[in-house]
Write a structure and sequence with these properties.
The chain has about 500 residues and is of the alpha/beta class. The chain is built from 10 helices and 28 strands. The strands form 7 sheets. The protein has a 7-stranded antiparallel β-sheet with strand order 13-12-17-9-10-16-14. The longest helix has 22 residues.
């Protein structure tokens, strides 16, 4: 009997496995055409909506090409978004590396190649902007070869397709190459009902202030009413599920990006790149007890993974600079957090408070109390004036520049001694209260506002400021370069 039950369980498990859509990560250097490529595939114009013309968050959607369904992740290309880019590449079955054939391989291109290699992700290269003057496909492929990407153009096996994302040329060949590579991948997934594991891409708030989680289902199913778990202490009911394009869904399956409504508060464990779980509440008493135990097990695991030392002592001489940060999404919030992860021998940067969309009045008052600057990224301005600096931006590298200026002002001043002139002491006149030193063989300048040092046999015997600087009887502020001698009054 046990043998028959085992066979039945095996058959049922095999039935629940299905072929999920492949997950494609679009990566590349900033302004090489990733978002334009996606706009051409989706027939949208998102690139014009991005501040500064660069992607500043991970986005995920589904695309159907000739009957084949793909889940596509668009990752930022700017250097400040390396954490988000790493999250996107670690999830993908195939990377589409977009390279501008006019600029060739750049800094973030090399980083994307490293991330794909570390995660053992196969790659298809999109050789973009071939329609522009100065585009050089062969040179670009040679630069890729130097980074270990052996395209078919140089005798390798990596597909590299010339395209123009702006005009939509070559996209059919590109997606054909993608289908050819993904057809050999194992894309089986467990869609067993009862428990879901997904990974969070973003958390946003709608106009009503409700938190919306964008997540990629990795295994299992999620339905309306399932218990959402991404916090070690609380769980919530999924009040609604929809596709990323806004259409309603009855069930979320593996490989499918979904938007879940139901989480009532934002926690760090529910941030992008972290896991979210859903457990179907049981109908019978036994099923309810089993679902509760499953929730406790998941929460214990999250608690163990997210334990952090909340108390730290700073060594002497180290100054702590705190920020209050408010951003439009949690993914952008974490990018700013990564950018502020700075510690030197003199300063340590900390985020005292972070929030999505709005800062409360209490948060602003606390920032004023401790003198912490407030960062507002792509969110409305504060409702009232505040006494602390407010850094308002919607482009990440402009924010990074101003943060650097704030830190420079917070650091103690460094004084650098620079020799601007020197001469030879010829005579010393006066008494102990007031002495005059005659100097000849002047080189450079002598300035009464500068510091002076007297050496004998290259050993300093006096250092300080002087009372006056004279040429014969005339008092001057500084010597000219053509002067050969002067007198200095001490005391």
């Amino acid at each position: 009997m046990n043998h028959l039950r085992h066979r039945l369980h095996t058959l049922l498990t095999l039935r629940r496995c299905y072929m999920r859509p492949p997950i494609l990560g679009v990566l590349g250097h900033v302004d090489h055409g990733k978002t334009t490529l996606i706009d051409s595939l989706r027939q949208t114009n998102n690139v014009s909506l991005e501040a500064g013309g660069i992607t500043q968050r991970n986005s995920i959607f589904q695309h159907t090409d000739n009957g084949y369904k793909f889940t596509i992740v668009d990752t930022p290309g700017h250097a400040a978004f390396s954490r988000m880019r790493a999250t996107g590449s670690s999830l993908t079955d195939l990377g589409i590396l977009v390279v501008d054939t006019k600029e060739g391989v750049q800094q973030q291109t090399i980083e994307c190649i490293r991330l794909l290699r570390e995660n053992e992700v196969p790659v298809v290269v999109a050789l973009n902007k071939v329609d522009l003057p100065g585009a050089d496909v062969n040179r670009t492929c040679e630069m890729l070869f130097e980074q270990g990407i052996e395209t078919v153009q140089v005798g390798g096996s990596v597909p590299a397709v010339p395209i123009s994302a702006l005009h939509g040329t070559g996209l059919g060949d590109l997606m054909g190459a993608v289908r050819g590579v993904t057809s050999g991948l194992d894309l089986s997934a467990d869609d067993t009902n009862g428990a879901m594991q997904g990974i969070v891409f973003d958390v946003q708030t709608n106009l009503k202030g409700t938190l919306l989680i964008t997540a990629l289902v990795q295994k299992g199913q999620i339905r309306r009413g399932d218990r959402l778990i991404c916090d070690p202490y609380r769980h919530y009911a999924a009040r609604g599920i929809r596709a990323v394009d806004g259409s309603p869904l009855s069930v979320g399956l593996p490989g499918m990006p979904v938007v879940i409504n139901g989480m009532q508060s934002y926690t760090r464990s529910g941030s992008s790149g972290s896991y979210i779980y859903a457990v179907t509440p049981g109908r019978t008493r036994v099923e309810r007890l089993a679902s509760r135990e499953r929730i406790k097990t998941i929460q214990n695991r999250i608690r163990e993974e997210s334990e952090e030392d909340l108390y730290e002592s700073l060594p002497p001489g180290l100054k702590k600079v705190s920020f209050f940060v408010c951003a439009d999404t949690t993914a952008t919030l974490e990018t700013i957090e990564q950018m502020l992860d700075i510690q030197t021998d003199e300063v340590k940067v900390a985020i005292h408070q972070k929030s999505v969309k709005t800062l409360s009045e209490d948060d602003i008052r606390r920032a004023e109390a401790i003198g912490a600057p407030i960062i507002l990224f792509n969110v409305p301005d504060l409702p009232f004036q505040t006494s602390v600096p407010v850094l308002r931006h919607n482009i990440i590298y402009e924010l990074a520049t101003e943060v650097t200026q704030v830190l420079d002002e917070a650091l103690p001043a460094h004084y650098v001694q620079r020799v601007i002139g020197y001469g030879t002491v010829e005579a010393i006149h006066g008494d102990m209260k007031r002495r005059i030193v005659g100097v000849s063989n002047l080189k450079g300048l002598m300035d009464v506002e500068g510091g002076f040092r007297i050496k004998r046999s290259n050993f300093p015997i006096w250092e300080g400021e002087i009372a006056s600087l004279r040429i014969e009887r005339d008092r001057i502020v500084k010597t000219r370069r053509d002067m050969n001698e002067c007198g200095k009054g001490f005391g």
